[in-house]
Amino acid sequence: MTFLLSPMIDSRCEGRKLRESDPQKPYVHEEERMRRYETIFILRPNAGEEEINRVIESTSKIILDEKGTIIELAKWGMKKLAYLIKKESLGYYVYCDYAGTPAAVSEIERKFRIDDLVLKYLTIKTANSITEEGIEEAMAAIAAKATALQESEETDDGESDDVENNDDEDAE
């Protein structure tokens, strides 16, 4: 009895599938591929600054331990909720944009389910795969956006002072 081997299996890769585009490199498992995610989580309003920072640091540590990269981390602050969540009408919002593995997302969400400070969370996958160049481009775009926003605020402050001065001159 003879067995036919699949053309996708090669002894050099110990039975793992080979990439069709480059047969010399083994197939990268889905769990090992870096993806881009956004997570927004809402913390209890009575949480102190230390507790908020603790949750943010533990989330960042999980991402970095899984060899991920944090692209943007923003504290949106206290906001009124549209409906009561765990008998709370206010919540402290935190936004995190990062590149990581599905294992990192699973661990973050597991920690959120355990932690009583977290009222609600939502994670979405924004890109199926992201490269180091893509991460650097995203970080540069966010930095450019922040500087542009800061510059526009500075020019708005300068214009409002001029308008106030003109009003004073008109009154005289």
List its salient traits:
about 170 residues, alpha+beta, Alpha-Beta Plaits, four-stranded antiparallel β-sheet, about 30% strand, flat
Explain what you see.
The chain has 172 residues and is α+β, with helices and mostly antiparallel strands. The protein has one domain (30-150): Ribosomal protein S6/Translation elongation factor EF1B (Alpha-Beta Plaits), CATH 3.30.70.60. It is built from 3 helices and 4 strands, in the order βαββαβα. The protein has helices at 49-65, 102-114, 132-171, and strands at residues 35-43, 69-85, 88-100, 118-127. A 4-stranded antiparallel beta sheet has the order 2-3-1-4. A hairpin with a 2-residue loop joins strand 2 and strand 3 (88-100). Helix 1 runs antiparallel to helix 2 (102-114). The longest helix has 40 residues, at 132-171. The N and C termini lie far apart (107 Å). 16% of the residues are buried.
Brief summary:
The protein is an alpha+beta fold. Helix content is 41%, strand content 28%. A hairpin with a 2-residue loop joins strand 2 and strand 3.
